[in-house]
Amino acid sequence: MSLELIDYLVFFGYCFLIVGMGLFVSREKKGHIKNSSDYFLASKALPWWAVGASLIASNISAEQFIGMSGSGYAMGLAIATYEWMAAATLLVVAIFFLPVYLKKGIYTMPGFLFDRYDNRVRTTMAIFWLLLYVFVNLTSVLYLGALTLNTILDIPLIYGIVGLAIFSLIYSIYGGLKAVAWTDVIQVVFLIAGGLAATYIALGMVGEGDAWQGLGTLRQKVPNHFSMIFSKDDPFYQQLPGLSVLIGGMWITNLSYWGFNQYITQRALAAINIDQAQKGMIFAGFLKLLMPLIVVIPGIAAWVIVKEELNPDFINAMIDPLTGDTKSDRAYPSLLQILPTGLKGLAFAALTAAIVSSLASMANSTSTIFTMDIYAKYFGKNSSEAGKVRVGRITAVIAFVIAALVAPALGQLDQAFQFIQEYTGFISPGVFAIFFFGVFWKKTTSNAALVGASLSIPLSVVLKILLPSLPFIDRMGWVFLVLSALMILISLIEGKGKDHPKSIEINQELFHTSTGFKIGAILIVGIIAALYTIFW
Fold first, then answer.
1. Number of Cβ atoms within 10 Å of the Cβ of 200
2. Are 276 and 509 in contact (CB under 8 A)?
């Protein structure tokens, strides 16, 4: 695909805007030295709209634009359950977990585990998260982003990986979370505007120039692609096992991601106060309801375009040059190739915004956990605030270097979004168990939490080997139940029925929410119920 002058102007205008904004907000007042609160928690000064925008920009990345569009191409609207159930999960986290985190004034999720349990649990989970962020999250986003550049502009994969890593570092490494969060506000504007433009063009192509007609045509041409709940005989039941997406293991992966995941919760921890944090979560919830229109519907449209042979250029772009097969994860990049001049630059900027905002967020959270939970505890007990900031910056660079070296190995995957969900799911049951019992059951002991943290991956691997036909979402549910039983048993035996000395005092006042929050929550729940009723 060749970009015209106006496309380059739009794209490079976006790049200069992001870098300029990142450097501008990173400035400090004369005489003020950036401390750990400034760097890792944006000085705890984020308003609700910045919290919500940053949550979505951090979440929506290449794995959604590329991976989820690819899954939309292959399996249809059902993959949107990750987005719509996430909106409901944000409400649960805002009401029941955020107040506890903010009351404790923590920097990191491992820091919460130290406050509730002990240093062993904190260190174990800190190491798990560091490995996950670097070898799964950062790596997969770099790969998918570079794949997009390769498909659109024929940029060699390794150049794309290195270029994305450098761009993300340029605007984020100096200012830390403050730079990431405030540029995310701009990133979300590009992300939504460019994403909707691409969806409009794709639907227009299917509907002979009428986007609304195109949406109706999709439902007529591929009705099976609009089923949200799969039956057991569906070929994609393994990925989305029926009612488990509503009342089963999907809650485990969603709560682990939105409630106990550093690069997500870090935005809420940086809010001005609890009210602003909760309103930010509501704002993010409404944006999540919109996301399938941007990241799933184009994939379904791509399926129709290919099957109906509506555009030869698009069909050719869908073919993997290495294997000669049509590859689902090429659906969104291929769509960008057939956009009109001007919109190409906007959509390309939107995709790049999604990629680099997530990369910057993941790198910042990786550096936060390493600095506050590993370095400050074991290597730099007497380190100054400036020293911690310096270590955080160095850690971010090292994380990108490692991820860039590993990323090319993901080239053999199809539906990369499912790869990310499954292997993140190895740790999710343990994370959910230790946080859930840590907050809501006073008798949970540190040893019980350590068992829950340590056995999550081994149990998941054993079940995957012994029961390969068990859907990974259901596997997460069974692992959580086993870990819960073990944690309860260990806690009762070890604690002899007594409350743990670090248990959390829960009262009704802690979970108080504003009237505006309640109204927003009711609207989100109502919309989700309507969507599942329509597309069941």
1. 17
2. no
Closest alpha carbon to 347 in 165, 145, 190, 168? 190
By C-alpha distance, which of 354, 345, 316 is closest to 151? 316
- Residue 42 Rama label (left phi>0; alpha psi -120 to 50; beta): left
Q: pLDDT digits over 320-355, tens only?
A: 666 667 777 677 777 777 778 877 787 778 778 778
> Residue 235: how many CB atoms within 10 A of its CB?
9
Structure tokens at 41: 């928690």
Tokens of 39: 């760097």
**Domain architecture of the chain: domains with CATH:** 5-28+45-407+418-424+505-534 (1.20.1730.10)
What tokens does 346 get? 């906007």
Cβ atoms of residues 181 and 365 within 8 Å:
no
Q: What backbone phi and psi angles, to 5 degrees, belong to 474?
A: -70, -35
What φ, ψ does residue 121 adopt, rounded to 5°? -65, -45
Is the distance from CB of 117 to CB of 304 less than 8 angstroms? no
Give the per-residue pLDDT at 441: 92
Spans in the chain with pLDDT lower than 70: 1-2, 31-33, 62-63, 151, 320-324, 329, 411-422
**Phi and psi dihedrals of 297, rounded to 5?**
-55, -40
d(CA 536, CA 524): 18
Query: If we measure between CA atoms, which residue out of 192, 384, 184 comes closest to residue 266?
Result: 184
pTM: 0.86
424 Ramachandran zone, left/alpha/beta (phi>0; psi -120 to 50): alpha
Tell me the backbone φ, ψ of residue 270, rounded to 5 degrees. Answer: -90, 5
- Residue 129, classed as helix, strand or coil, is helix
At 152, which helix (H) or strand (E)? helix 139-153
Q: In terms of Cα–Cα distance, which of 303, 145, 130 is closest to 219?
A: 303
Q: Where are the alpha helices (DSSP H) in 370-412?
A: 385-406
In sequence order, the β-bridge partners of residue 271 are 46
The whole-angstrom separation of Cα 53 and Cα 182 is: 9
Alpha carbon 331 to chain centroid, angstroms: 20
Residue where the block lists tokens 């992300």 = 191
Taken as a whole, the chain contains a residue count of 536
Cβ neighbourhood burial of 275 (10 Å; 0-12, 13-18, 19+): middle
